Amino acid sequence: MKSNFWNNKVYIENFILVCLIVFKSTQASVLAIAPETTIIVLIYSGWIFYKRRIKIDQFILVLVGLYFALNLFYYISFGSNNFFLSFYILLKMLYAYITIKIVRESFFAIYEKLIYFLVLVSLPLFLFQLINYELLFKIVGVLQNNISILEYRNDRLANIFIFTLESNGSLTRNSGFAWEPKGFSNFLLIAILINLVSNRFSINKRLIVFYLAIVTTLSTTGFLVAFVIFPIFFVLNTKSKKIVFYFLFFSALAIYVLSLEIGYEKIKREIDGRDRYIELLEDTREFETRSLGRFPSFILDFNDFLKRPVFGYGFNREERTQSEYTKLVRVNGVSDILAVYGIVGFSIIFYFTYKSFSSYLKIYNSRGSYLILSMVGVIYFASALTSHPFWMIFYFLFSINLRSYNLKCLYELIIHEKSLNSIKLEFKERPETV
Q: Where is pLDDT greater, at 296 or 434?
C-alpha cells in the first residue's frame, strides 16, 4: 500500500507552502515579482501559522526590534530612509520564517520532490528548445502575450510558471522554471544537497537526473558547486573502500570542468574585467540599466562598505555609488549584503545560514558544514538572491530544532511513498508538528 500522505490535509498545505515560496523566488513572471502576491502568500501562510497554533520564537521578536532600530539609525544618519523597501524586505523575511516554522522537517522531502518534478518537465522541453526555439518561445509565452496583466519582458522572456525561455544569451541553455539558467542551477544545487545527505551519499536515479539538469544549464556557478564542491563533500562523507578511486575520479572531473570555457576561462574573464565599473561610472551615455558583473559589483560594493563598515547603508540605494546617467545593477549577493547590512548584518546572516545547514547535517552525522557554507557563498557571489524569500529560509532553518525521527520518516513517506506500516511509523506528536 502506497503512502496516504498525499491525502493528508497537513501535508497538502505544506506542499502548497513550499511551492509558493519557490515560485515567489523564481523571478520569471510578473506574479513571482509582484509585491501584491507577496502579501497574499504571507497572509495565507500566516493563517496556517495561526490555525496550527504555532508559537513565535523570542529571537524573531528581538530580530524585528533590532531591524526597526537599525532603520531608525539609518534615518538619523542619512536624514532620510527608504522605510517602504525596508518594511517590504522585513515582510519577506517574516514570510520565510513563518513558512519554515510551519513545514518543518517536511521541507526537505517536499522540496526535492517538487524540484524533481520540475526537472522532468524541463528536460523534454529543453530538447524541444534546441530543435525549434522560436516555436517553443511562442507556445511558452502564450499566457503573457494574451493576458495583459501577465506581460513581463515579452520580447525576451517566455514563461508558463513551470518553464521559462530567456533569449538574452540562453538560447542553448536550460532556464527550467527560473528567470535564467544560473537561477535554475541554484535551485538544483539545494535539491542535490538534500538528495546526497538524505540518501547517505549513495548514487540514485534522482541524483543522476539532477546532475543531468545541471549540465543543461551550462552555469559556471552550478558546475563549480556540482563538480568541485560536492565531490569534496562526497569524499569527506564516504566510508567506502573505493574512497581512493572516488578521490582520483572527482579530482580529474574537477580539473576537466575548470578547463571548460565556462570554467577557468570564464572566471578569468570576469576577474580581468573587475575594473570595468570605472568605465561604466564615467560613461555619459544614457541607458535604462546596465549590469556591472560579479567582480565589478564586488569592488564597487566593497568600496562602499569601507565607508560604512559597521551597519552599512540599509536599503538607501541612492546613498551608494551610482552612475549619474545609468542605473548600474549590482549582481553580487555577497558584497550586496556587506553594503546593505555592514559587517554586523553580514556576520549574523552567514552565521545563521551556517547554523541552519550544520543542524541539518548533524542529524545525518554528515561532515562538511563549512563546505556547504562555501556553496552558499559561491551561489550568492554570482547572484543577488538575498532578498528572495526562498533563500531567506536558510536564515531561520536552525530555529525549528529539527527532529531526526520526523526528518527521516517524512523523507521515506514523501520521496519513496512508503506506507505507514512498511516503516512502522507511529507519530508520537500531533500531525501539525510533523
A: 296
Residue 108 has a pLDDT of: 96
Cα torsion angle, 304, 306, 307, 312, sign: positive
Question: Is the overall model pTM greater than 0.85, yes or no?
Answer: yes
Query: Cell 547554523 maps to which residue?
Result: 355
Question: Hey, is 319 helix, strand or coil?
Answer: helix
User: Going along 259-410, which residue ranges are E strands?
Assistant: 289-291, 327-329
Which amino acid appears at position 54 of this protein? Answer: I
Bridge partners for 159 per DSSP: 164
Cβ distance 23 to 164 under 8 Å? no
Scored b (16 or more CB within 10 A) or e, 389-425 reads bbbbbbbbbbbbebbeebbbbbbbbbbeebebeeeeb
- Torsion over CA of 187, 188, 194 and 198, rounded to 10 degrees? 160
DSSP string, 138-155: HHHTHHHHH-GGG-SSTT
Q: What is the per-residue pLDDT across 168-182, written as a single tens digit (0 to 9) for each?
A: 878 899 999 999 999
Q: How many Cα neighbours within 13 Å face the side chain of 340?
A: 22
Cβ proximity of 287 and 326 under 8 Å: yes
Distance CA 364, CA 288 (A): 49
| Per-residue burial over 209-245, b = 16 or more CB atoms within 10 Å of its CB, e = otherwise | bbbebbebbbbbbbbbbbbbbbbbbbbebeeeeeeee
Phi, psi of 202 (to 5 degrees): -100, 145
- The residue assigned the cell 497572509 is 43
For cell 547517505, what's the residue?
200
Where are any strands of DSSP class E within 321-379?
Answer: 327-329
CA-CA distances (angstroms) from residue 33 to 38, 44, 115, 302? 8, 17, 20, 28
Angle between helices 230-237 and 243-259 in degrees, nearest 10: 170
CA distance 114 to 15: 9
Identify the residue whose cell numbers are 497537513: 10
259-298 tens-digit pLDDT:
766 655 666 666 655 656 566 666 666 665 666 778 888 8
pLDDT at site 429: 45
Coil, strand, or helix at residue 165? strand
Helix (H/G/I), strand (E/B), else coil: 166: strand
Amino acid identity, residue 31?
A: L
Distance CA 183, CA 29 (A): 13
